[in-house]
Structures are given as structure tokens and as C-alpha cells.
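Peptide deformylase
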Amino acid sequence: MILPVVAFGHPVLRKVCDDITPDYPGLTKLIADMWDTVYNSNGVGIAAPQINKPIRLFVIDTVQVVDDFDDDDRKRYPNEKAIKQVFINAHIIEETGDTWAYNEGCLSIPHVREDIHRQAKVHLRYLDENFVAHEGHFHGITARVIQHEYDHIEGKLFIDYISGLKKRLMKKKLDDISSGKVKVDYRMIFPK
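Structure:
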């Protein structure tokens, strides 16, 4: 089932989310619904707070991004390994590598994109959908998508990384999003 995406300004997007246990109600269906929602909205990932659940859960699929690399991207990210993965109770151990900029967007903040600087590598501990523990090292685009979705479960948004001046310049756009004056091809929940 395709779920509505929470829009900028909703308080759930600013909550530090809670770990969950294997008996979390309806978890298998929730994960399936998150996949349906991310694909319906042409995203590469979605975190539980974006569907109004303050829990440490996100899904990412970087396959489409890596498959669509042009020649320049293949040179820039020669060892990029695409993944499709569920992350439960993720906790970053370390972020390393050079900081680099990439133009990010977010399903909760439609029609806003900015160059965001993040470190090139992320090392994290997480559980998969079967609650099997993993520790993984990710780099490049995949690391960036993980960092973006991880921020959601920490109550952060990609726009938190931009300057105050840029935020002031985009205030009207953000106000329009939070008041429901935005058109998207997917359902949204707007703050009350």
C-alpha cells in the first residue's frame, strides 16, 4: 500500500526516533508499504518518520541511481556498489573520508534541491528486516543516501546543512510546502 509522505514542518520529522523490537506491530507490512511508497514517489529511500512513524527504520535502493550513471559518474564513482536494503535500529559508528558536495532532495521537501557536503564513507551497525545484526562500510552515492535517511531517524533534514542565508532565501518555498501549497505526484500529510 502506498503511504502518504509527511511534509516539511510536521513535528515527526524533528524527532529522534526509537529503536524497535522484532514484535513491532505490522512490521513486515510496514516495510513492504515503505518500498511501495518510495517507488511510487520515484525516490531512492524513505525513513519511517517520513510516513509518520517515529521509529529507527529506513529503506534505500541505489540500484536505479547507479544503473543510470553516465560516463562521468562511472569515472567519479568507479567502485560504486548499488544496494537495496532495509535498515532497522541503525547507529552510525563513524563517518570518514573527504567531504564532497552532491545535489540532494527529499520527498518531504519537494521541489527543493541543494548541494550538501557529506563525508565520503559511513560505517554503521544495523539490523536487517529479519533482525539479523550487520555492521557495514559504505561509500560514495550509497553512503550519501544512507546518511540522508539516517538523518531522518535522528530528527535532521538535509536543509539543516545549508547556510542561514540560503534558508532565508528558500523560506517562501518551505512555507508553501508546510501549508500544502505544493503539487506532487504522491500523497502528502501536511502539518496542522
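The chain has one domain: 5-183.
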